[in-house]
Amino acid sequence: MERSNHGMNRQLYRCFASTSTMFLWALFLIALTASYLSFQAFVDSGSKYLSASWGGIQWEKQVRTSAQIHRQGGISVLVTGAAGFVGSHVSLALKRRGDGVLGLDNFNDYYDPSLKKARKSLLSTHDVFVVEGDVNDAKLLAKLFDVVAFTHVMHLAAQAGVRYAMENPQSYVHSNIAGLVTLLEACKSANPQPAIVWASSSSVYGLNDKVPFSESDRTDRPASLYAATKKAGEEITHTYNHIYGLSITGLRFFTVYGPWGRPDMAYFSFTRNILQGKPITVYRGKNRVDLARDFTYIDDIVKGCIASLDTAAKSTGSGGKKRGPAPFRIFNLGNTSPVTVPTLVSILERHLKVKAKRNIVDMPGNGDVPFTHANVSSARRELGYKPTTDLQTGLKKFVKWYLSYYGYNRGKAVN
Ligand SMILES: O=C(O)[C@H]1O[C@H](OP(=O)(O)OP(=O)(O)OC[C@H]2O[C@@H](n3ccc(=O)[nH]c3=O)[C@H](O)[C@@H]2O)[C@H](O)[C@@H](O)[C@@H]1O
User: Fold this and answer.
1) Ligand 1: which residues within 6 Å by Cβ?
2) NAD-dependent epimerase/dehydratase domain: from which residue to which, for each copy (predicted)?
3) Which of 71, 132, 151, 403 has the most CB atoms at less than 10 Å from its CB?
């Protein structure tokens, strides 16, 4: 009996000993995991800091030099989306007349980033520095406003493209909503607050069938998520104008085209396919009606952007507080003469001297609208905007650029 008691005690003791050992081991493992995780976090934040493509004395010097004004009464502009189509043209035009320009671009791969890099190189030969960063990066924006007292922001960074919104809806929310709010937050806190000019879109007119489109027409029936995010942008900027006294000008661009353009757009991809002997898909509207766009040449758009910057009254707030009412303006920037898509193709065929292989299909329900047509009387009155390039002339310039940029290979463009 005594012996068995003894045995039981020993077993209990062993059991207790092994439980406490297990407990100790468990504690040890938890501690080990915790220290490993915090070490990882430290390494991550460290490497983020080290690999950040911005910051440092040299970088700040580049930022300052690029934003330096070189003419009397000049302005200093932060151009977001500067490596983009419209952004690169506006940046060059501003720099050429002696304004300070600093570019910001995230170089995303929505379309071939090498074209964006090439635009960046072009800008750098004209002493425009483009910072690689995202408008969602609040710290970077705060730093930029810390280094330079920008008088204006030309906000062109966006997720563009009407039909791609069905493939990647989140990218529209990221750039056109979240990015816009982050930028406006930075602008509202900046001292002095800059005046903001930004790119809305003709697509906000959505299912409107009253033509031509006027700024006062309804814009509450967008046909694509892209259009909805641009419309939301107009309302978000209104809020910042109302609460913080930011001076806002929204520009509704109508299908902008030209040299250094966007490869995802029809005139560009048609050119590539025609030269490569590949078929092109031409969408057709309901009842076999051709689709039409108020195609607008890039130089006209640049003039409209610069006139918007020049006529924008100052923001009134400071230290994040409104000091008085500031202007809120919206303008159509179009060409005022819509052209059908089949006519666009015919003009390209003439300039390229190659016949297109047209594949005509009914317009899929992917966010497209049947036609656009701008009434630009507001822009004419207040900005002196007057488009001067017709589609025939503008496409000739585009084709010339396309062939010089991508080159010929026995009649076929190399890209
Ligand atoms: O005006 C605007 O606000 C918009 O203009 C363009 O959008 P979109 O007019 O759709 O321009 P494209 O993609 O170049 O299309 C032009 C026309 O060609 C048609 N198309 C497009 C692609 C294609 O393969 N086939 C085709 O027939 C489209 O249906 C449309 O009627 C831009 O892509 C948008 O970023 C911009 O906001």
Assistant:
1) 160-162, 201-203, 253-255, 265-266, 281-283, 291, 293, 341, 368, 372
2) 77-313
3) 151
